[in-house]
Specification:
The complex is a heterodimer of chains A (286) and B (158). Chain A is built from eleven helices and 13 strands. In chain A, the strands form four sheets. In chain A, strands 4-5-10-6-7 form a five-stranded antiparallel sheet. Chain B has 158 residues and is of the alpha+beta class. Chain B is 32% helix and 13% strand. Chain B has a five-stranded mixed sheet, with helices on both faces. In chain B, a hairpin with a 2-residue loop joins strand 3 and strand 4. The chains are: A alpha+beta (286), B alpha+beta (158). The interface between A and B is medium-sized, with 31 and 28 residues.
Chain lengths: 286, 158
């Protein structure tokens, strides 16, 4: 195994192009588990810890550009105001030690259907920035996840950033698991209610990839149009939950059955809708 | 490969390091520092918690090469050079928070990092949250919570 340690993004891209099989590693919270358990033996590790360009975030036009190696602890501490949904999801990752090291870029690289950031990235219509020596391209989150643990990256590309619009309305993220820490989601759901009246959703851990519930989005967008801020009628929230559950494509596995996941998603969808609607205008992170 | 780093304020060098090896392996097997414990090797248990450039991390999930040129503090580096225990270490002993002791180094490192960022005695919910990544199979955690509160109280009065 080679250990490649670039000190700039340009150097990292050159190395990736020359070593297509090199596995990028930042926080190591996924990759090192696989190496420790002999489940993966990459030809080379491409360490991104010294590539400081990837550890910054900044406004970028109307969006916020988050470097791929910004750890979860900073998403929670620094971006909870502008991106409450993403901060809530980051808050549910692993443990304090894991959040100190793990990154959104790593979540995207692993592309696990259970990755905690994905539902929020889908709900918010985030864009994933992939860069290689050939240039930079922007991939909508909805096109990034192409299969279980498979993403749309080319072999010479690195995930360099995520671009997300700051919340304009209410956002929520909710996850079902057996503990409040160190848990892989049984299922998860993210909701983005926007000031322009549109709605974004994201489903995690209930399909071969993270999924949007587009019918549920269309239903809710139509139902919320022109509505006062009074509490939403129960049948509306229930129907929204049913549509979210219907969009899931879960399987039975060690963490839960498909039937349980569908049921739990309908509950999460209903609850997150109520929380978001009732807190309308309040963008504080939970 | 060779990895040079600073461990407990001393320069250290490890040779013949395999590129897929963890920082934990380097510390325990190459630098004769067995304080950080090797249990789950997947970041679940926290018993290998060390400070990497002053940030608590699971040493089992840091690739050895990622520690090149960086500063590590292990549980061996917490006591004063004259041998006086760190207040967190003393509190774990006084509160009876150590049974088999395997989780203790990780809990002490994580508690140390927590309390140096906290004013006064933290609320139970905050202690539980901050120690959520450290498993103990002996104590049932009650004595560990006692130890954290005891250490926090003593450190606040220093």
């Amino acid at each position: 195994m080679d250990f490649l340690q670039p000190h700039s993004l340009a150097e990292a891209l050159t190395l990736k192009a020359a070593h297509l099989a090199a596995m990028p590693i930042s926080g190591g919270t996924d990759i090192m588990v696989e190496i420790n358990f002999d489940a993966r033996r990459p030809e080379a590790l491409l360490d991104l810890n010294q590539v400081t360009e990837l550890t910054r975030w900044a406004p970028d036009g109307d969006l916020i550009r988050i470097g791929a190696a910004v750890p979860y602890v900073r998403v929670i501490g620094e971006l909870g105001g502008a991106l409450p949904g993403l901060a809530m999801a980051a808050r549910t990752v692993g443990s304090p030690q894991i959040r100190n090291r793990g990154t959104i870029g790593g979540n995207l690289g692993a592309a696990s259907p259970a990755g905690d950031c994905h539902p929020v990235l889908l709900a918010c219509g985030a864009i994933i920035e992939a860069t290689s020596v050939r240039g930079t391209r922007q991939i909508p989150a909805a096109e990034f996840y192409i299969g279980p643990k498979r993403n749309a990256l080319a072999a010479d590309e690195l995930i360099t950033a995520v671009l997300i619009r700051p919340a304009t309305g209410g956002q929520q993220f909710a996850k079902v698991g057996t503990r409040n820490a160190m848990v892989i989601a049984v299922c998860a759901f993210a909701l983005d209610l926007r000031a322009d009246g549109s709605v974004g959703t994201g489903i995690g851990s209930a399909g071969p990839t993270p999924l949007r519930a587009t019918e549920a989005e269309e239903f809710l967008t139509a139902e919320l149009a022109g509505r006062s801020t009074a509490a939403l009628p129960e049948p509306l929230a229930r129907r929204f939950g049913e549509l979210v559950a219907a969009a899931a494509r879960p399987i039975d596995d060690v963490r839960g059955t498909a039937a349980y996941r569908r049921h739990a998603l309908s509950v999460l969808a209903r609850r997150t809708l109520a929380w978001t609607w009732n807190a309308k205008g309040d963008k504080k992170c939970a | 490969m060779r990895v040079t780093l600073t461990v407990n304020a001393e320069p250290a060098t490890a040779d013949d390091v395999w590129e897929g090896e963890s920082l934990l392996y380097v510390l325990r097997e190459r630098l004769a520092l067995p304080g950080s414990k090797n249990a789950c090797e997947q970041g679940e248990c926290g018993s290998c918690t060390v400070l990497l450039d002053d940030v608590p991390v699971c040493a089992c999930l840091v690739a050895a090469g990622q520690a090149q040129g960086r500063e590590i503090v292990t549980v061996e580096g917490l006591a004063d050079t004259d041998g006086a225990l760190h207040p967190v270490q003393q509190a774990f002993i006084d509160a009876g928070a150590v049974q088999c002791g395997f989780c203790t180094p990780g809990l002490i490192m994580q508690t140390h990092d927590f309390l140096r960022r906290t004013d006064g005695v933290p609320a139970d919910a905050d202690i539980r949250e901050r120690l959520a990544g450290n498993l103990c199979r002996c104590t049932g955690y009650e004595k560990i919570l006692d130890a954290v509160r005891l250490a926090a109280g003593r450190m606040a009065n220093q």
